[in-house]
Amino acid sequence: MTKNKKLLNWVSEIEKLCKPDSVHWCDGSVQEYDRLIKEMCDSGLALKLNEKKRSNCVHFRSDPSDVARVEDRTYIASKDKDSAGPTNNWIDPDALKKTMKSLYDGCMRGRTLYVIPFSMGPIGSPISKIGIEITDSPYVVVNMHIMTRVGSKVIESLGENGDFIPCLHSVGKPLEKGESDNGKWPCAPMEKKYISHFPEENLIWSFGSGYGGNALLGKKCLALRIASNMAKREGWMAEHMLILRLTNPEGRQFHLAAAFPSACGKTNLAMLQPTIKGWKCECIGDDIAWMKIAPDGSLRAINPESGFFGVAPGTSNASNPMAMDTVKANSIFTNCVVTDDNDVWWEGMGCECKHGTDWKGREWTPESKEKGAHPNARFTAPAKQCPVICPDWEKPEGVKIDVFVFGGRRSSVVPLVTEAFSWNHGVYLGATAASEATAAALDVKGNIRRDPFAMLPFCGYNMADYFQHWFDMGARLGNNAPKIFYVNWFRKSPEGKWLWPGFGDNSRVLKWICERIEGKVSARKTPIGLLPDPKNLDLSGLDISSAELDELLKVDTEAWKGELADIQEFLSQFSSRLPSEMKKQFDEMKSRLDKQI
Would you state the torsion angle of the CA atoms of residues 11, 13, 18, 21, taken in this order, to the nearest 10 degrees? Predict the structure, then answer.
């Protein structure tokens, strides 16, 4: 047990408010995990999967109302509304606390209050932070076991006076005496769901949802929304980015951090299998990067998580064989199809399921009218199981970032790869990143969604100030600042044909990026940035015609002028708070397009 008075007082305060039947301090042990899994299987909440096919794996079905992050019930409760900015749901912190305290009052009756001490990042790393999550959900406990470092070592690291981020969570469904969940997923109605962040206090309160980022409070709530505020105040970076290591045939290592909106292949890139001879790729993280400037002036990054919380549908041996290998054991699945032989299946898995039980518990066949797995069905798996996990993925000091990559899903206008002219130009590219909202073949106004740095749902303060923080970090890094690139794997021909094979062949683009860092290859200047000379892209073994390559690397000046109108409209919402450097970069882009230089 801890001697940390702040922690003991907080747990006591929450116990009095929520009124659980019992309190359990999590120790992070295998025995604790196994006991909770068994209890949930015995109660009907979880199903043990076929041991021969998936060792030590279980499946859960959530309530149909509780299947994903609920952005419209996610709040930034800062004292000043403008500090939350136009892209966040702001709510007055005092009013919100009053509402939520009434919901928390007695909400854990009939349940156990679990105290989860967890470390985001390797315990003791100068980049790591400690959080304490209080929850009444054993599902949350077992997922946090995988996604973070949980237990006694965290309490030891915290010590008597150490600081922590308090994270309070309840499923919002108290049980009367003698009542049980009867194997049904517990949660509150949508109108009672609140995922609330109090940035001035580094405090997270979540109520009513038991699923994903709404409940695993180390995930987006702490790792991005609260951490982005801390990073701004303390001079570091908390980003929605994968981290990977590329090693060239000569043995030189490059570390890349990349931000993509959803459905743009982020996890696939994190576990890339290069198709070019002699190149090696290793995964450090697939979702979050925390970065600080080291004593030597370089930017060092850690993956603050210890597991993958990935979207299952679309994951296959073709798209991501490393992820498929990772989830063969010790994993938790949620809202998939359960096959007749007690395995899991989902759409896009690359194999057939003739009969099973869908995510709602109904009989399912390929002829069924609805999909068998929920589109946001998930797997939770230990990162250490990934076959291409980097040996240095838990290095306390982090890895040196050489390059940032931004991207989005665009079927036209945006070329395969663009190098920024400078750090500030790269920040502009990241700030104006966009992805298609649908699978339409052509970009049209209203069809694309601006998602700056892939942080739109996750930046915990005014995004205009976030842009300024990026500019400030570049100024501090100076010559140590990583190079910035923008990629688009999804460009199509005018006839609607995919022009780039993607997946493992994306390593060819990464090779060019690395060779640009080394100064080995040239680039041609265009109004939007530096693009490859076609001869410098390694296309060996690919069936891409010169016409297709021209289209992949085409910069349509008129189309880009049309793009500026959409960018200007997006940026206008930040009004006078928009950094002057953003306005300067916009004006310079417009001038280059007008002059076609």
Answer: 60
Tokens representing 248 are 């060239």
**Cα-Cα-Cα-Cα dihedral of 367, 373, 374, 380, to 10°?**
-170
Q: Quick check: helix, strand or coil at residue 445?
A: coil
User: Is the residue at 52 inside a domain?
Assistant: no
- How many domains does the structure of the chain reveal? 3
Name which of 350-364, 436-450, 528-542 the model is least confident about.
436-450
27 and 80 together in one domain: yes
Chain-centre distance of CA 533, in angstroms? Answer: 33
Q: Give CA angle at 575 (574, 576), nearest 5°.
A: 115
Domain boundary among 198, 217, 236: 236
- Tell me which of 264, 283, 353, 514 is the catalytic residue: 264
Torsion angle of the four alpha carbons 197, 28, 126, 476, in this order, in degrees rounded to the nearest 10 = -40
**Which of 385, 405, 440 represents a domain boundary (last residue)?**
385
Q: What's the pLDDT score for residue 263?
A: 77
Structure token pair of residue 283: 């995964």
Mean pLDDT of 341-370: 97
Query: Is the pLDDT score of 438 beyond 80?
Result: no
Supply φ then ψ for residue 572, to 5 degrees.
-65, -25
* DSSP three-state, residue 264: coil
Contact indicator for 45, 139 with CB cutoff of 8 Å: yes
Placement of tokens 């999967």 in the chain: 49
Q: Once rounded to an integer, what is the mean pLDDT over residues 363-387?
A: 97
Asked whether 463 and 452 are in contact (CB, 8 A), the reply is: yes
Catalytic annotation on 187? no
- Is residue 205 domain-shared with residue 147, that is, in the same domain? yes
